[in-house]
């Protein structure tokens, strides 16, 4: 659902922006449906990533899960809206070049971090172009791209793209449609990035308090798993020691029986 909703939100916003740039506007009834679909995609991505966070670390509070859902929705909204506006101003090739360059940046970060194999990283880098899928509670070394590096790249890209957006809008003669599609996407991108900046520090702090390894289940951290291992080891040792004592007892009884058999009965 996440891998489907994230690209759909970007493509649908891109379609709205292209219609606005062409000066024809969206077909009758299409714009409201696309906006509703985009909003549903944002909610789907936020809830999906929050549920994965809860599945990985179920000891977190409900407030943390809600905060993750809101933060992730802001993240995909800011990313999709900014890309859509930038791609609309650089149509028809800017959209594809932006995604290709970002994919290359993600590959470089994956190779530098060396948390996953390169062949696997080729596939992991695809969704990272739009949103970071991995739970925030994972340790830094367990991420394909560490969250601090990922969000730093996103901030730099946001600043660079908005610099060119403002510059190209001043120089371009594109007439904004009466429905305010361009302005709506720009406001969505700016306010979503602001929401991401506000919610990320709180989510990050709580995630570090509940940090766990990617390869270890959370229930094992309280020692219950170790207890199971210790119990099994204790049982095995008990069985082994009791078996050895039984064997020694049998040998002693056989030896005693043999000695008694060798003695002659009294006449």
Keywords:
single chain; 267 residues; mainly alpha; 2 domains; XK-rel
Entry summary:
Residues 225-267 are annotated as: Disordered. The chain crosses the membrane at residues 9-27, 118-138, 150-168, 180-204. This protein has 267 residues and is an all-alpha fold.
What does this molecule look like?
InterPro entries: XK-rel. It is a multi-pass membrane protein. Its main location: membrane. Keywords: Membrane, Transmembrane, Transmembrane helix. Belongs to the XK family. By secondary structure, the protein is mostly helical. The chain folds into two domains: about 220 residues, no CATH class; about 40 residues. Helix 1 packs antiparallel against helix 2 and helix 4 packs across helix 5. The protein is elongated, with a radius of gyration of 31 Å.
The helix fraction, in percent, is: over 70%
Number of helices: 8
% residues in beta strands: under 5%
* pLDDT averaged over residues: 80
* Count of distinct structural domains: 2
What Rg, in angstroms, do the CA atoms define?
31 Å
Secondary structure layout plus pairing:
Elements: H1 2-22, H2 30-56, H3 62-89, H4 94-113, H5 118-128, H6 147-171, H7 181-209, H8 224-262
């Amino acid at each position: 659902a996440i891998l489907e909703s994230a690209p759909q939100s970007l493509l649908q916003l891109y379609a709205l922006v292209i219609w606005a740039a062409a000066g024809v506007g969206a077909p009758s009834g299409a714009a409201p449906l696309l906006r509703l679909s985009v909003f549903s995609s944002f909610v789907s991505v936020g809830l999906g990533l929050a549920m994965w966070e809860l599945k990985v670390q179920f000891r977190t509070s409900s407030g943390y899960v809600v905060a993750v859902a809101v933060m992730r929705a802001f993240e995909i909204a800011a990313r999709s809206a900014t890309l859509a506006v930038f791609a609309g101003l650089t149509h028809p090739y800017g959209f594809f070049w932006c995604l290709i360059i970002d994919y290359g940046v993600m590959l470089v970060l994956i190779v530098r971090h060396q948390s996953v194999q390169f062949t696997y990283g080729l596939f992991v880098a695809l969704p990272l172009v739009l949103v970071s899928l991995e739970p925030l509670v994972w340790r830094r070394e367990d991420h394909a791209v560490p969250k601090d590096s990922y969000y730093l790249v996103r901030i730099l890209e946001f600043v660079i793209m908005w610099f060119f957006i403002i510059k190209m809008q001043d120089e371009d003669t594109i007439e904004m449609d009466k429905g305010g599609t361009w302005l709506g996407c720009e406001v969505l991108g700016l306010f979503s990035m602001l929401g991401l900046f506000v919610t990320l520090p709180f989510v990050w702090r709580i995630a570090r308090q509940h940090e766990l390894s990617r390869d270890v289940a959370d229930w094992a951290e309280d020692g219950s798993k170790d207890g199971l291992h210790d119990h099994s080891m204790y049982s095995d040792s008990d069985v082994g020691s009791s078996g050895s004592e039984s064997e020694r007892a049998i040998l002693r009884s056989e030896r005693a029986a043999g000695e008694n058999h060798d003695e002659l009965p009294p006449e």
